[in-house]
Amino acid sequence: MGRGIALGLGEAGATVYVAGRTVEEGTSAARLPGSVTTTADQVTSMGGVGIPAPCDVGDDGQVADLVDRVRSEHGRLDVLVNSAWGGYERFTDGSDFNPGPFWEQPLAMWDSMHRIGVRAHYVTSAVAAPLMITSGGGLVVSLSSFAGQVFVPPVPYGVAHAAIDRLASDMAEDLRPYAVASLALYPGLVLTEGVLANLQYFEDQPNRETPLFVGRVVAALAADPDVMRHSGRWLIAAEVAADYGVVDEHGHLPESNRGRFLQDHGSVDRP
């Protein structure tokens, strides 16, 4: 999904620092295709400027070094997207995809989802905020999901997303005086390489989106001079797209998953 967001911003003409651990194609720890180098090249081919930025967001020092690099090379940072995630080893290591109730799941799942999915989002935002403030404003997007609102197993998944939603909301309060918006964004079922390889587990989820669609939504938010009206909220990518006139790769507008979750869980409050 991070690659799709990078491409969506590149399509809009942005200079994008593509952060990730995989430098060379075929060396991903998750055994999936892609690298920061190939993604940066794709960003450039889409009309932007792609800059490969090898970085493990689980390492605070590497995150700080990357922000310093952006400050040194460009002097400003307008958009930060927190899209890193951990705990999906079951997609790629051959273990049971649905390991059962929380007491039967590996404790490491909690650690992975909270160390990368929550802590790294906080650390990256905290390190980047001073540069965004001196840039005169900007946008922080933290990827989340409906799991932050209703029960979506496994338990660590929902708890981490509830924390991400609260993180985006609370950061918005501190950032508001500096015209930096902070929000949580809920994509639908995004057809990433990992999802496509495990599509049999998602047959009950009809509202599907491409990674580029999510990128186009982020780009639309970043281009909105009145984006502060969204600050502190959680937003559904398909609903944002409808508001801004954004479509997916083949001209299709995916449906919001709000109705599906309303049906399954009774109510999902509008932010």
Features:
271 residues, alpha/beta, Rossmann fold, four-stranded parallel beta sheet, two-stranded parallel sheet, 8 strands
Can you describe this structure in just a few lines?
By secondary structure, the protein is α/β, with parallel strands linked by helices. It has 9 helices and 8 strands.
- Order of strands, widest sheet: 3-4-5-8
| Continuous helix count | 9
The number of E-state strands comes to 8
Helix content: 40-55%
Which stretches of 5+ consecutive residues score pLDDT under 50? none
Separation, N- and C-terminal Cα atoms: 23 Å
What is the element string, with H for helices and E for strands? HEHEHEHEHEEHEHEHH
CATH fold topology: Rossmann fold
Rg, Å, rounded = 18 Å
| Mass-distribution shape | globular
CATH class categorisation? Alpha Beta
Number of domains: 1
CATH architecture: 3-Layer(aba) Sandwich
- Oligomeric status: single chain
**CATH homologous superfamily - what is it?**
NAD(P)-binding Rossmann-like Domain
Sheet bearing the most strands, described? Answer: 4 strands, parallel
Name the beta content range: 5-15%
Mean of all residue-level pLDDT scores: 89
Q: Would you write up a description of this structure?
A:
With 271 residues, the chain is of the alpha/beta class. The chain has a single domain (56-94, 102-265), classed as Rossmann fold (3-Layer(aba) Sandwich). The protein contains nine helices and eight strands. The chain has helices at 2-11, 36-45, 60-74, 107-134, 155-175, 193-197, 211-223, 237-244, 258-265, and strands at 15-20, 49-54, 79-82, 138-143, 180-186, 189-190, 208-209, 234-236. Strands 3-4-5-8 form a four-stranded parallel beta sheet, with helices on both faces. Helix 4 links the parallel strand 3 (79-82) and strand 4 (138-143). Helix 1 packs parallel to helix 2 (36-45) and helix 4 packs parallel to helix 5. The model has no long low-confidence stretch (mean pLDDT 89).
